[in-house]
Write a structure and sequence with these properties.
The protein contains seven helices and nine strands; from the N terminus they run βαβαββααβββαβαβα. With about 250 residues, it is an alpha/beta fold. It binds 6-phosphogluconic acid. The site of 6-phosphogluconic acid has 13 residues, from α2.
Length: about 250
C-alpha cells in the first residue's frame, strides 16, 4: 500500500486545474499503454469544477476523448434525467461539451430497483474489464461525515469484499438509496484522487488524514490502493487543520 500524497493548493480553482492536469497526464499514459483510459467519476460539487476545467480551452483538445471510457464511483437511485443524478451532472458539464460517444459512457442505472442496479453494474464492469475492474483513475470526494462515493459511516457496503458494486441505504438523505463501487474496486485502481475544498471540510479532513484509523466511521480512510497511487488535492481552507501541512 502506498502512502497518500497530500497536495495543498490555493483554492477550488487550483484544485480543479490540478485534477484536470492529472486527468490529462493519466489519459495520455493509459492510452499509450492500453489504447483506452477508464476513469470513474464522482458526484458532488468539487469534481464538477474539474469537469468544467476539462472542457475549457486549456484542456479540451489535449485529450483523446474517443478513447476515454467514463464510469461512476457512485450514483443516486433516481432516473438519469433527475437533477440529483451524478450522471446527469457529468452529462451537462463534461460529456455533452466533449460530444462523448454513447458507447463510452457507462453510467450506473439509478432508475432500476437498487439491488438490480448494483448487480447490473457489477456484471457490466466484469464484462468490460474481463474480470476485476482496474480503473486508470478514480475521482473521489469527501463528505463532512467522512463518507466517500456512497460508502457511508457504519454501512454494510463497507464490509463488501467481493461485489464490485452494491446498493446502500442512507437514512435521512434526500435520495436515500444509492449505488456505490466498493473498496475492492477503489483499492485496485491505478490512481485514486480525492478532491476536497472548503472550510467546512477542515475538521473531517484532519480526522481522516491525521486521526486514528477508524474506517468504519470515517469510510474515506478505507481507500488505499494496493499497487496504485493515492493523492489528496485539497485547498488551503480544507487543509487548515492539518498539522503536517500547516
Ligand atoms: C455524491 C458523491 C459524494 C461526494 C461527497 C463530497 O454522489 O454525493 O459521490 O461522495 O463526493 O459528498 O461532495 P462535495 O464535493 O459536493 O462536497
Amino acid at each position: 500500500m502506498t502512502q497518500p500524497h497530500v497536495v495543498v493548493l490555493d483554492g477550488p480553482h487550483a484544485v480543479a486545474a490540478r485534477a484536470a492536469e492529472e486527468f490529462e497526464i493519466r489519459a495520455r499514459a493509459a492510452i499509450a499503454a492500453r489504447n483506452c483510459f477508464a476513469v470513474a467519476l464522482s458526484g458532488g460539487k468539487t469534481p464538477t469544477r474539474s469537469f468544467e476545467m476539462l472542457v475549457s480551452p486549456r484542456f479540451i483538445d489535449t485529450i483523446d476523448w474517443p478513447r476515454v471510457h467514463f464510469f461512476w464511483g457512485d450514483e443516486r437511485c433516481v432516473p438519469p434525467d433527475d437533477p440529483a443524478s451524478n450522471y446527469a451532472q457529468a452529462r451537462k458539464s463534461l460529456l455533452d461539451p466533449i460530444h462523448a460517444q454513447e458507447k463510452s459512457i457507462h453510467r450506473m442505472r439509478g432508475e432500476l430497483e437498487p439491488r438490480d442496479g448494483a448487480r447490473d453494474y457489477a456484471a457490466f464492469l466484469d464484462r468490460f474489464f474481463g474480470g476485476a475492474a482496474v480503473f486508470d483513475l478514480v475521482f473521489l470526494g469527501l463528505g463532512r461525515d467522512g463518507h466517500t462515493a456512497s460508502l457511508f459511516p457504519n454501512a454494510r457496503a463497507l464490509e463488501e469484499t467481493a461485489a464490485a458494486c452494491v446498493s446502500t441505504h442512507v437514512p435521512g438523505n434526500l435520495v436515500p438509496w444509492r449505488l456505490t463501487l466498493t473498496y475492492p474496486v477503489f483499492n485496485a485502481a491505478r490512481a485514486a484522487f480525492f478532491l476536497v475544498t472548503g472550510a467546512d471540510k477542515a475538521d473531517v479532513l484532519a480526522r481522516v488524514l491525521e486521526g486514528p484509523r477508524q474506517p468504519a466511521t470515517l469510510p474515506a480512510q478505507g481507500v488505499a490502493p494496493t499497487d496504485g497511487s493515492l493523492t489528496w488535492l485539497v485547498d488551503r481552507e480544507a487543509a487548515a487543520r492539518l498539522k503536517q501541512h500547516a
